[in-house]
Predict the structure of DNA-binding transcriptional regulator, AcrR family.
Amino acid sequence: MCSVVNQPANATGRAPRGGNGRAGREPYDLDAVLDIAVRAFNEFGYEATSMGVLAERLGTSKSAIYYHVTGKEDLLRRALERALGGLEGILAEPGAVDGSPAERLRFVLRGAVRVLADDLPYVTLLLRLRGNTELEREALARRRAFDRAVAELVDEARVEGTLRADIDARTAVRLLFGMINSIVEWYRPGGALTPDQLADDVITVAFEGLRVHSAGDAAAASSLATRVSTS
Amino acid sequence: MCSVVNQPANATGRAPRGGNGRAGREPYDLDAVLDIAVRAFNEFGYEATSMGVLAERLGTSKSAIYYHVTGKEDLLRRALERALGGLEGILAEPGAVDGSPAERLRFVLRGAVRVLADDLPYVTLLLRLRGNTELEREALARRRAFDRAVAELVDEARVEGTLRADIDARTAVRLLFGMINSIVEWYRPGGALTPDQLADDVITVAFEGLRVHSAGDAAAASSLATRVSTS
């Protein structure tokens, strides 16, 4: 599956990934085909994107794309697999399995932000699915399973006493994902805000909130201490 | 503008608002026409929704709709005005003008959640605009102006020292709106979660975070007090 299709000089200008290095040819491998397909799906919509449009964007023929994939749905399947596989992979890492529920929750949310930042167009595609086909419904079911795993961590952390219980767990999870999923709408990889800093910011807002109540803020802390000592 | 169009027995089943009460007739007023138009725009997309489809949904004729509005763009203009007017109205209220920046910010965010919950389909329409026409671009400019007003409150609260300064203000505003705007994707008015409770939850997560560190949590508070006293 690593054979290449040709990219003429007047194509997208995007550096292709991999290839066989044949002299005078700018090759595209499957990953590059997938990248361009995902961008087109996000721009025009999956239904409205034809294999002809993809071939045009790649500066190649439809048959060259069919060398890599069996068709448009195969491209969608592989793209969704990349987004979902990335998210599901987080849950299998030691940080998501070992430690207190709150620690595991932080690890998983941080991982989700990383997957979003690293594979932004792929996760965008996943988040915009409507469930029009069996493939889309299967992907949505896997996305819901990931959300449920996070919801269970929230539940466990509430039982443990580290997460506040005065907000309904489902509402908390939805607000968390609202914040995290919004990243695909405004984050631009390669800018001043690195994926790590972005993940830190999300974790800080989600767990600590924007109000100053850190140990470094003496006024807020003494006000808190006063309330505790008089309660 | 309060004249009515007729709704036959086989129409949507939705209770019409207002009307002139002529016996044997189920009337639609402008608000009801707008409601149905907005729902259709959200379901099929604005471009794909014809006046014919709207007439069919209303169980009336296109000319009956033209009695209320000059055309499809007029419906869109009025729908967007309702969403934007609601948001802009918050900024003019005393709670958005008087008090500390943090208090005003809470008031505005709470108001935004209320507008979203009360006029969910209208705000959904606004949030999904792509800026394809002059009308859409004007609406997006007004939405950005609202976002900027919130960003200025965040800035002022940071200067005041009540909001944490270790997160970039633009990132903070985007995460806040990510959380708030996500409400249109999952909130169902009329359920157990009231708009007021929803607003409380959003304000709590945004300002306090999900981690337990309230005055009621003695362990967290004493740990904080210890850190403050030894720093």
